[in-house]
Amino acid sequence: MDNGIICIIQARMGSERLPGKVIKEIKGTPMILHILNRLNRANKIEKTIVATSTNSENDRLEDVVKAAGGNIFRGSEDDVLKRYVDAAEQFRGKYIIRVTGDCPLISAEVIDELIDKFLEAKVDYMRVDVPNTFSRGFDAEIFTREALMKAHYKATEARYREHVTLYMYEHPEEFSVERMEAKESWNRPNYRLCVDTKEDFDLVEKVYEALYDQNKGFEIDEIISYLDNHPEVAGINQFIIQKNV
């Protein structure tokens, strides 16, 4: 029997612009563990898994996750869609949330709301509306295992194998697709909170220095309030150009 809702975090050590970023430490803790800790605060996720590739460079990532008691799955480096299919089958998820390992400010509150709206809408796929209304870095998607399997069988182009959900949202005639827009207090498309570069990391580190308490989480409202009140921090990475899919 399927467990229900699982979250699979796509992560690897071989980032082009900031190699090894997923285990780069923030306040003494590897970034991937901050992501796991933040996702573990979501009420509706039953299991969280870090999915990386079998490349030897990711052995260190596996060690870090396992030492912290986390779940790890290793699969194809280039066929990330297949990696997700295999992970979803091993951990028996009926609904799969996709998060990436470059979002250390991911919001459990946003994830829980996304799950609620997805289940209410009864669609195949729903994503957080990044970058139109939400800040980049709160990115999350949820889809059914049936939709994942359908994409796996039908998607043949390399770009669809590399980008897990690209086939789904490029084929709305085959999948019911929706997005969750940010409510007014969360609507900050101008902030960039993912980590691709040193400047991105510097910004996130300053947010953690200001808000982090290991005994108490900090959420999206506190992050936005801090950046609204510290434009010099919010502006650290404003010139970074996001890579296109």
From TrEMBL:
Keywords: Nucleotidyltransferase, Transferase. The keyword 4Fe-4S does not apply. InterPro entries: Cytidylyl_trans, Nucleotide-diphossugar_trans. It holds the Pfam family CTP_transf_3. GO terms for cellular component: cytosol. It comes from the Bacteria. The keyword Transferase applies. This is 3-deoxy-manno-octulosonate cytidylyltransferase. It comes from Defluviitalea raffinosedens.
